[in-house]
## 1
Amino acid sequence: MTFAAIAAHFEVTRERVRQWHVKLCPSAPRGHERQRQCALQRSKRRLLRQPLFRTFYRHVRDHFEPGRVALIAGRDGFRATAVRLDGHRIAIRKATVKYQNGTAISYGLSGGTADVDFLYYRLLQDEFLLVPRAAIPPRGVAYRQSAESPYEAYRNTFTAVSAPRLARQAS
C-alpha cells in the first residue's frame, strides 16, 4: 500500500506516514528498495490472476509445502510459463484437445525444450500431467486417458519430480 493511500485514509500527510513507518518499522525497507519489493508483490499478484498459472499453483500447493516453488524472473515481472520446483525447471502448458468422443478424450502434448526438466500440462481444471521432458518427443505426442498409456503414471501426481531426488538421497 502506498504512503499516499495510507495518508488519505488517516487524513494525514505522506510525510507523517513516512515518519510512522520509520518509528514503527525501523528495519523495514525504505525508498527504492520498498518500491522494488512492492513491484515484486504486484507482479506475483498478476501472475496468480492468469488461469493456467493459478491452476498449476493450486496443484503444487496440494502436494508440496511452501517454499519449494521458486518463480523465475523475467523482464516484466515473473514468468508465467516456467517455475523451479526443488531445483528442477518446469514448463507450464495447457494440453490441446485433439479429439473428443463420449468420455474418451485425446490431448495433444507439445514437445519440450532443452532448458526444462519437466513439462506440466493442464488437461482439465482438476487434472494434469507432469512428465519428464525426455518422455515427450520434440514434435509432441497425443495422449489418451487409458490404463495402457505410458503417460498415465504421470497423471495428477508430482512423483516424477520427487523420484529422482529420492534416488539421489538414497545413494
## 2
Amino acid sequence: MNIDEQAQWKQEALLHAFAAIACRPALTKYLVFKGAQVLRERLPDSKRVSLDLDATQRWELREDIGDDAALSSFLKSEFSQAMRQYFASQEIVRFELEGLTVKKKPRHKHPRGWDAFEVKIRLRDALRTGVSGLPALVVDIAAPEPLLASSVEPLTIDGQAVDAYSLSRIAGEKLRAILQSLPAHRAKVDRRPGAVRVKDVYDVALIHAHHRLDDVAFWKLVALEFHVTCRARAVDCQGIETFEQALDSMRTSYSLDRTLPGDIDFDDAWAVLVRIIEFFEQQGLLPLECPDV
C-alpha cells in the first residue's frame, strides 16, 4: 500500500472502529469525542480527512476506575471487547482485531496532571488478506478539561448516540492547539520544538465557511470556549502577534500537507484567523495570560 492507499484505508477502518466504540457503554460513559473525525461528522459535506480519533476523559474516569495501571487495564479491556463484539456482529465480517495496546502519555506522572492515553488498534481486513502490516488506528485520549454548557452535544454514530464536542468547542480548541504548537508556549511548558498545527488553521477556516463571523452568537461561544480551553492548559495569547510566531513555517507546512483537501488556500485561511482574533479582542477576551499550573 502506498501512502495514499494507507490514508484511504485508515479513514475507512476508523469509521468502523468509531462505530464499535459507540456501541460500548463503558467507553461512551467516560469519553467525550472531539477532533477532526467529529468535525467531519458535524460537517458531512466537508472534504476533511481524519486519520485518527480523539477524545477527552471525563473527570469521573479516574475517580471511578483508579490509578494509571487500573485505567490502562480498563481501556485495553473495553476497547478490545468493543472491537471484537462489533465486528463479530456484522452480517459480513470484514475486520478482526489483531492486537491492541494502551500507552500512557507521558510515561510517568505529568507534572501538571495532564495525563493522557494512546490506544493503538491493529486490525485484519478480509478484503486485504494479501497485505501485511496494515497501519494501526490511533485513539488519543486527552486529560480532562473544564466543559461549558455549550461544549458538548450528542452525535449519532452508526445509530448510537455519543457525547462529542460542539462546533463552537472544536473551533475554540483548534485555535488553542495552534498556539500550543508554537515556540512561546512550548518553551513555557518545557516541551521540545515541534511541527506547527496547520490542520487546525484549515479546520478553523472550514468552520468559518459554515458559520461566518456575522453569526455573532456562534463566535461569542467560540470565544468563551477558547478562553476556557486556554486557561485549562496555561496557553497565553496577546493577539494575532502570538499566532504569527512561525508564520513562514506554517505557510510552507500548509502547502505541503497532502491530507488537506486543497479547497482553502493558506492566505484565505489566515485572513479568517486574523478576523476571528480581532473579534475576540472586541469581546474583551484578549490579551489572555494564563498562569502555569
## 3
Amino acid sequence: MHHIYHTEGFIVSGNNLGEANKFINIFTRDFGMISVFAQGIRKTSSKLKFSLQDFSYSKIDIVRGKDFWRITNAEKLVLLENLVKDEKKFLLVAKIFKLLKRLCHGEEKNEELFEKLIEGFNFLEKENLNEKELGGLEIILVLKTLFYLGYLDNKNGSSVFVDSLINKNLIEEVELKKRSLILEINKSLQETQL
C-alpha cells in the first residue's frame, strides 16, 4: 500500500501522453517541482480534468510510484481563478511559471518561495494595477524567485524587494531602480546557464 501525500501546488504545465494521459509539472508546497502522471485525465469523464488545468492552484493527493508520482485526487482552489481571466495578469503568471519550469530541477522543498508566490498572486488578484505597476510586480516576483532558488545574492540593491511584503509603495520603488534591477536579473539568469 502506497502512502498518500496531501499538498497544494501550482499547475505549471502539462504534456499529453497517449490518448488520455498526461504528465503534469506541479510546483508544490511540500516537494518543490514534481512531475506527476495523471492517467485518463484527458477523457471527458475525468473528475480531475478541471482541477489540473495549466495555471491552476489545487490541493492534490499524490503517491510515489516506482518511477514517478501519480495523482490520486485533486481539488481546484480559488487562487489564480480570476487572474487567468485578465490577459495582462495572466501573462505575468505565465512568465513566472515559465521561469519556475526553467530553474527548478529535481524535487526540492522550497516553502519560502511557495509562500512568496502565494503572496504575490494574492496581491495581483486584489489590486488594480496599471501596466507600469504590473512590470514592477513582475520584477519583484522574479527577484524573489531567483533569490529563493539560490540564483541571486541578497546583498545587492535587490534585498529590500526580496525581503519586503509586496505593496504599491514597493512597486513604486522598483521604478526608481528598474535599470539596475533588470541588470541584476539578467546577470543572474546568464550565470544559471539554463
